[in-house]
Write the structure tokens for this entry.
Amino acid sequence: MKIIHETGKYVLLMKRVLVAPDRWRMFFRQFPKELEKLGLNSMPIVIIISVFIGAIMTIQTKLNTENPMLPTYSTGLVTRDTLLLEFSSTILCLILAGKIGSNIASEIGTMRITEQIDALEIMGVNSANYLILPKVVAFVVMMPFLVIFSMAIGLVGGYAVGMFSDIISTADYLLGIQYAFIPYYVFYSLIKSLFFAFIIASVASYYGYYAYGGALDVGKASTNAVVNSSILILFFNILITNIMLN
Amino acid sequence: MITVKNVDKIFGDNHVLKNVSATFEAGRTNMIIGASGSGKTVLMKSIIGLHRIEHGRIEYDGRNLPDMRMSEIRRLRREVGMLFQGSALFDSLSVLENVMYPLEMFAETTKEEMKERAVSCLRRVNLPEHSYKLAPSEISGGMQKRVAIARAIALQPKYLFCDEPNSGLDPKTSLIIDQLINEITREFNMTTIINSHDMNSVMEIGEKIIFINKGEKAWEGTKEEIFHADNEDLNDFVFASELYKKVKKANQ
Ligand SMILES: Nc1ncnc2c1ncn2[C@@H]1O[C@H](COP(=O)(O)OP(=O)(O)OP(=O)(O)O)[C@@H](O)[C@H]1O
Ligand SMILES: [Mg+2]
């Protein structure tokens, strides 16, 4: 019952968000700020996580498949496909749900409890549209770049293993990551990530927008935002994978 | 003029407003008084349509708000200014930008004219010039209230709502803010409604007073009448402090 109620409320909110802004000038003033805050500022964490996961995946794959029957390129291939198919979209988005989701929910939640949203409404501004649309659009626009970036950096992480240790040779690794490359996987990952970006930004905005109470409630709103957007990401991951890879 | 007729508001199982009716006239300061939690803020937000009421009429010079569509409500709100309990200035904008915001959103003038208008509003509330560039968090509570007043009057509203304009201010600053609101109300012939639980403000600027007790309108009258009222709840509220008990004795 509660799920139906909340979903309805979310849909109604999105109906107010997804309309043309009253003033495009105000939208384009917010938009670049959000690109920077949600996109560019996420680069460091994307780099750090991707490089380490790329490296560790290479090491693990190699160590766990010590079998002379397997071709030498298999480690690179497995690393690449894992990155392309799941890590750089789904897992990355789960991590960003934590960073971006809590950021958005607490920002909008604070505006709600300090009556800044009421102040916007009183002026006759569509506050949902003014506050949420730039965030959603900016994050959806930035997401493909973050994903591509993560894929590239992840592969570099694997390469570093070859360079700095003798677990795998760089030649084997390079052969592996080029072997039987399927460009569609990248496309599939990018499409998934667009959905995830929308989920993260809109669900977090929803929880922030309907926060009620004090500072503690803003904290709760941001926890709810992270938990529920993560669950939705996992659910949509299965759904989209079924549609796109079957 | 704003007329409220038989308004009810319920949150879940909390019946906050019970059949409230009142008239608020233009060019004077109308006050809603009552204890904390009595429903003053909810009444004010219902009048502006931030809360949807269960039933009743809310007429802005004859225009009934509950009948309006969202787009009509938005248009009406451009005639409304509001001062919130906690100022509600936008943290991400400077003082000047806060006052310019409603102009940028709705005025059809050049950027220069907007700035001029914003500066003249800030001058009107006596805000020192060096603070225009500061963030709201960098100025004192009293100054924040002034900025909020400047922002509320930027679009020359016909209706002004103030939710506890002097909560968190010292008595002297409170008085200055009260008088400022009073002057502006006359100057622009606005219909002003002020929420308060501060008897000093009531005695200073309350021309028409409505007393809300547990969500019901329990009394209405003028500040001259308030000392002679025989409503028990009102007397409890008014004469809670020793000072006003003495005032009452002296009057008798
Ligand atoms: N958005 C809301 N959702 C649910 N209940 C609410 C909401 N806003 C107010 N209430 C409830 O309505 C009642 C009246 O609150 P209100 O804020 O109007 O009091 P008030 O008279 O303004 O008090 P104060 O002087 O402390 O500001 C309270 O019981 C409060 O819990
Ligand atoms: Mg209140």
About this structure: The pocket of magnesium ion (ligand 2) is lined by residues B 40-41, 85, 163-164 (CB under 6 Å). The radius of gyration of chain A is 21 Å. The CA atoms of residues 64 and 75 of chain A lie 10 Å apart. The mean pLDDT of chain A is 94.
